C-alpha cells in the first residue's frame, strides 16, 4: 500500500473513531430509496456485462459491500483503515475485506468488472483525484463500471467542509465528471438528491461511469 502523510492521517483518523462508529445505526440504505436505486442500476450494469468481481473502495464497516452482495454481485471491500476492516470482517464474516489504498490497489490490470466508491474519494486531495481515477481505470476490464457517491457543492466551487472525521471536499458534479472523462470514462448517468431528515445538510451527488 502506498504511504503518504495524507493517507496515514486519514487511516489514523478513521481508526480513532472505529469503536463509536461501530455503534452507529446501519440503516442508511433502508432509509434512502434513491441511493438503493443507484446501487441497483450499477449492479444491473455489471450483470449485463456477464458479471465478474466488484470492489467497494473505502468500504468502512461494510454495509454497502453487503448490500451489493445481496444484489447478486461477487464483491469484496477495501479500506485504508485497519480498524474499519476489522469491523467489516466481524459484521460480515462471509465477505472478503482487505486493507489497501484506492490509488495503489493490489490488483491486476483489468481484473474488476465494477468499482463502487461510496463517499470515499471525498477525502482525496483534489490534485490527487486524476491518479485515483487512473488507478480505477487500470484495474477495470473494458466496459467495466464505476459508481461514485460524494457530497455535491450545489453551484459553489470545490470546497472543504467540516467532516466529522477528517478533511473532506464538496465537488461540483460537472467538475468530477470531467476529471473522470479525462481519465477514460464515459458518463452513463447521474443523480443528485437533497439531504433527508437527520442527514448533514448537503446535497448528495452520484455518477455512474463506464470504462471506454
Automatic annotation (TrEMBL):
Entry superkingdom: Bacteria
Domain Methyltransferase: 54-144
Gene Ontology MF annotations: methyltransferase activity
Pfam families in alphabetical order: Methyltransf_25
Record key words, sorted: Methyltransferase, Transferase, Ubiquinone
Protein name: Ubiquinone/menaquinone biosynthesis C-methylase UbiE
GO biological process: methylation
Native species: Amycolatopsis marina
Amino acid at each position: 500500500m502506498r504511504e503518504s502523510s495524507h493517507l496515514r492521517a486519514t487511516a489514523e483518523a478513521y481508526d480513532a473513531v472505529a469503536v463509536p462508529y461501530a455503534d452507529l445505526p446501519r440503516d442508511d440504505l433502508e432509509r434512502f430509496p434513491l441511493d438503493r436505486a443507484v446501487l441497483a442500476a450499477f449492479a444491473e450494469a455489471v450483470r449485463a456485462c456477464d458479471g465478474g468481481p466488484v470492489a467497494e473502495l473505502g468500504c468502512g464497516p461494510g454495509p454497502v459491500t453487503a448490500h451489493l452482495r445481496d444484489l447478486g454481485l461477487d464483491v469484496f471491500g477495501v479500506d485504508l483503515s485497519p480498524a474499519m476492516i476489522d469491523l467489516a470482517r466481524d459484521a460480515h464474516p462471509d465477505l472478503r475485506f482487505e486493507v489497501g489504498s484506492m490509488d495503489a490497489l493490489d490488483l491486476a490490470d483489468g481484473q474488476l468488472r465494477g468499482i463502487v466508491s461510496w463517499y470515499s474519494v471525498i477525502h482525496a486531495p483534489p490534485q490527487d483525484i486524476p491518479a485515483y481515477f487512473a488507478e480505477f481505470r487500470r484495474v477495470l476490464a473494458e466496459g467495466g463500471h464505476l459508481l461514485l457517491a460524494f457530497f455535491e457543492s450545489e453551484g459553489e466551487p470545490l470546497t472543504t467542509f467540516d467532516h466529522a472525521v477528517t478533511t473532506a471536499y464538496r465537488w461540483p458534479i460537472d467538475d468530477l465528471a470531467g476529471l473522470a472523462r479525462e481519465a477514460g470514462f464515459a458518463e452513463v448517468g447521474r443523480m443528485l438528491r437533497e439531504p433527508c431528515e437527520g442527514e448533514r445538510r448537503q446535497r448528495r451527488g452520484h455518477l455512474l461511469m463506464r470504462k471506454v
